[in-house]
Specification:
Mean pLDDT: 83
Number of domains: 2
CATH class of the largest domain: Mainly Beta
Distance between the termini: 34 Å
Structural class: mainly beta
Oligomer: single chain
Number of helices: 4
Shape: globular
Length: about 800
């Protein structure tokens, strides 16, 4: 209670500082088509004709100019292909009403205009936090997973698992559509996605009922680049970097819009090498006396090489003024080779080496992925009544092989037993079929109802075929061979209502989801057939209320329930071996976890955002370590271990120091409590963690910019595992060239080479210490070039139904 009282005091104190400064907001439209205009320059001049501020309209044609003194102003708006607009505004106590300004198209082709204003790196809105990728200089040359490491409230662990505000179970969307990938497949997908192909990250801790309920800690929507200018336009990026090995990536983004047709496409490619070293010490104790019996000291060094190519192509067709149809096709193919060199010493309690195991494992993975989307949007009238529909088909194919060779020696180096060979063929396929439709009904009183249906069907087929050899020829290893087929059908129906009443905005929603699943493990001579079925219905209510106390201060509260279903791979009992003493295993008995969360927050002038949230998760899924003491085996799996309780106090600020410095600060204090049973023993863990991230961007003269950023995460418990503190610092400097159409960026990530994972497990009979170090200090250079030529009298492109912004409560 003391902690909660301190948090509420912090929120109340952040309300201080109300002022009489005003703001001006509005929406810019095409006069002929009434479509919003993105990327328009909005300049505000005072009565002395001095420039006060400059903003750029977003994808919906909206702009907001905040923190300006009351008085008289002239607003000037310009963008390529439209006549300039000027208007005099008298700003008194209140915002002069959300201006709606219609620009008249030019009758002739204009020269290309380069807009040099830049979006803030981090924008904090009532319903989400937005990270604008192009505004981060240190993002150059990185991939999507590395970019997420720097996002506010987001943490990425040693295995690439993503958590938000201290909780796993994050749902990843790509352009508003579920990625459908889980576990290692999602990690590899994000590693192969260069940051140069991304526009922004949208982080939502409590989405509305319109979103899938999946993801107990929230949603991260990764928005890829979509060019807003008319005509033929594009941009290209190439990056090269070096740590102890070379990595490189590049992308090209093109868009052509004329008459009723809009064509767009993206190509990206990357190649990389890297390595990681894991040190593991395990102490095996007698189950009864608890005395030390043996020590297992292990060093594993892995090296990977990856090559990946991605291609996306799509079209939007404006059949009528109110009807847009489109399609998007995308493909991804890549190869990944990873070698593991493992040396393990099995020692006595006194530290004498009794035996040694030398193992090598070469893993080769080849992926071919394809996705397709058909979408339709029809707007019935100017009130906003509309219907959207989407059909998706996605297929992921992976053909992998693994080859493990182990030598067994005594402590003196003599042969203990014959060498063993294990080889495996690991083909896997994921097929996804999805259909959804959404309808919006606005009311004259300002309210709006949204409703929709969605159905998805997923089939995963993983067939791990192992062969072993100690002497003679290879023979089937039926104990390790496993063929697992999983089918899942989710049907959803939702209803969402929101309304603005003076300074209050209310929203309430309810989503119902039915899950029908079946898993089948096909047997062989040794393993019997087995299967399971699940059929359950869950209700997911959401509620949101906000109060605009004045022009700068908004208070809000929300409640929501979400579900986190087990990853497809985590349900598969497939085994992945480092050596015969260390491996990973799936768990067919995993149950979904359900989270209820309530949050209170305060926003001050898009400058300071503070919140306190509390959540309870039942059947919490956690990564756990298991031990077979008599065989000296330790393996990793996932289990529903306990109820989890999270209390999170967060605050973030955007600071502008003069005209040339921007500072972004974000911090979260998180308390996690686990209560349950694991391996027959009580699990009662209560720990605090602090996670902070900061970046400073400094603008110099003659087109030079720089950025310094970093993060810190304190030590914490996550179920069994205790993780030590970790931190990192990045630096970048950029020069604008080629008449402001190009940028050259030099960067160094993990400047002090400090991003090292260390942890331990001291639970029940398990006693181990682990460290996991990847070569993360990386220096590189990146070049970006923007090109294109506008075409006269073209409509502003709107995304199709599958790419439309899903409903969110806005601060405006």
């Amino acid at each position: 209670m003391k902690t909660i009282a301190i948090a509420f005091t912090f929120l109340v104190l952040s309300l201080a500082g109300y002022s009489q400064d005003g703001r001006i907001s509005g929406k810019i439209l095409n006069q002929k088509t009434l479509q919003p205009i993105a990327g328009a320059s909005v300049l505000l001049y005072n009565d002395k004709a001095n420039l006060v501020k400059m903003e750029i309209t977003d994808d919906a044609g909206l702009f907001v100019i905040k923190s300006i003194p009351l008085g008289n102003y002239r607003i000037s708006i310009s963008t390529t292909g439209f006549k300039p607009f000027d208007k005099t505004i008298s700003l008194h106590e209140n915002d002069p009403g959300g201006l709606q300004i219609e620009l008249e198209p030019e009758a002739k082709v204009l020269q290309t205009v380069t807009v040099s204003a830049k979006k803030q790196l981090i924008e904090r809105k009532i319903d989400k936090t937005v990270v604008n990728v192009e505004s981060s200089l240190t993002a150059a040359g990185s991939n999507a997973l590395e970019l997420l490491e720097k996002a506010p409230g987001v943490d990425v662990d040693k295995d690439g698992k993503i958590s938000l505000r201290g909780k796993e179970g994050v749902t990843i969307l790509i352009d508003d559509r579920p990625a459908y990938l889980k576990g290692e497949e999602l990690v590899n997908y994000l590693k192969d996605m260069p940051a140069s192909a991304l526009d922004k990250l949208e982080i939502m801790t409590n989405p509305s009922a319109k979103y899938d309920a999946s993801g107990n800690s929230g949603i991260i929507n990764i928005k890829t680049k979509k060019i807003q200018s008319r005509g033929f336009n594009g941009n290209a990026n190439i990056s090269g970097m070096y740590s102890d090995r070379f990595r490189g990536n590049g992308s090209v983004n093109l868009n052509y819009r004329k008459n009723k047709t809009n064509l767009f496409g993206t190509y990206s490619s990357n190649i990389g090498d890297g390595q990681r070293t894991m040190l593991l010490t395990r102490n095996f104790k007698n189950a009864d006396s608890k005395e030390l019996e043996a020590i297992f000291d292990q060093k594993n060094k892995s090296h990977f090489h990856s090559e990946n190519q991605s291609l996306k192509f799509g079209m939007d067709y404006y059949a009528t003024k109110n009807t847009i149809a489109g399609f998007v096709l995308s493909g991804n193919m890549g190869n990944r080779t990873q070698t593991f060199d493992n040396h393990a010493n099995l020692m006595s309690a006194e530290g004498n080496i009794d035996s040694m195991v030398y193992s090598t494992n070469k893993f080769v993975g080849k992926r071919k992925n394809f996705s397709s989307n058909l979408n339709l949007r029809h707007t019935f009238d100017s009130s906003g009544k509309k219907v959207t529909a989407d059909l998706d088909y996605i297929i992921y194919n992976e053909n992998s092989t693994t080859n493990v060779h182990s030598d067994y020696l005594y402590g003196d180096g003599s042969v203990q037993k014959p060498a063993s060979f294990l080889t495996g063929k690991l083909p896997g396929t994921v097929k996804i079929y999805s259909a959804k439709t959404d309808v919006t009904f606005p009311f004259k009183n300002g309210g709006k109802i949204e409703t929709g249906l969605k159905s998805s069907y997923v089939i995963t087929d993983n067939n791990a075929i192992y062969f072993k050899k100690t002497t003679g020829e290879f023979e089937p290893d039926n104990e390790k061979t496993n063929h697992f087929i999983y089918k899942e059908n989710i049907n959803a129906l939702y209803l969402n209502y929101n309304r603005q009443i003076n300074k209050w905005r209310l929203q309430a929603g309810l989503r119902a989801e039915q899950t029908v699943s079946r898993g089948s493990q096909l047997g062989n001579e040794v393993v019997e057939d087995s299967s399971f079925k699940k059929n359950y219905i869950n209700l997911f209510p959401t509620f949101y209320i906000s109060f605009a106390a004045n022009q700068k201060n908004t208070l809000s509260a929300n409640y929501g329930r979400r579900i986190n279903r087990p990853d497809y791979g985590d349900l598969n009992p497939f085994l992945f071996f480092i050596d015969e003493y260390t491996y990973e295993a799936g768990n067919v008995f995993l149950q979904p976890e359900i989270t209820d969360q309530i949050e209170l927050s305060h926003t001050y002038d898009n400058f300071l955002n503070s919140s306190i949230s509390y959540s309870h998760t039942s059947n919490a899924i956690s990564q756990v370590l298991k031990q077979v003491t008599e065989k000296r085996i330790t393996y990793q799996t996932n289990e529903n271990i306990a109820d989890r309780y999270n209390l999170t106090i967060s605050s973030g600020a955007n600071l502008e120091i003069g005209d040339k410095t921007r500072l972004n600060i974000d911090g979260s204090l998180i308390n996690s409590k686990y209560q349950g049973r694991l391996d027959g023993a009580e699990l009662n863990v209560n720990s605090w963690m602090f996670m902070g991230k900061a970046s400073a961007q400094i603008k110099f003269n003659n087109g030079w910019n720089s950025e310094v950023s970093g993060f810190y995460r304190s030590a914490t418990h996550d179920g069994q595992i205790y993780s030590y503190a970790m931190w990192r610092a990045d630096f970048a400097i950029q020069k604008t060239v080629l008449k402001k159409k190009g940028n050259i960026n030099f960067f160094v990530r993990d400047l002090f080479n400090t991003q090292l994972f260390k942890g331990n497990v001291h639970y029940n009979e398990i006693d181990l210490v682990i460290s996991n170090k990847r070569v993360s200090r990386t220096a590189g250079i990146s070049f970006t070039y923007r090109f294109g030529k506008p075409i006269k009298n073209l409509k502003q492109r709107q995304s199709g139904g599958a790419n439309e912004e899903l409903n969110r409560i806005k601060s405006e």
